[in-house]
Amino acid sequence: MVHLLGDVQGCLQPLERLLAEIGFSPSRDRIVVLGDLVNRGPESLATLRRLMGLGDAAQCLLGNHDLHLLAVAQGVRPPQRGDT
Known about the structure:
Layout: E1 2-5, H1 12-21, E2 30-34, H2 44-53, E3 58-61, H3 64-73
């Protein structure tokens, strides 16, 4: 089954609860994250690592928060006060 999910926002614990609630299995299911994987929640890096750990079972589209992270990492934009 394919599951669509938007605005994870670096909130790992709610993501984990959701995956458990739907009985997500990487060998059987796919998840498509529709942008904004990072930035508002406290665990952006751990959230990215968790999704990357799903391998081919996860596909992620970039949202504005994700693009901001890349721009900061490349020195194109300065970090913002609320960045996590």
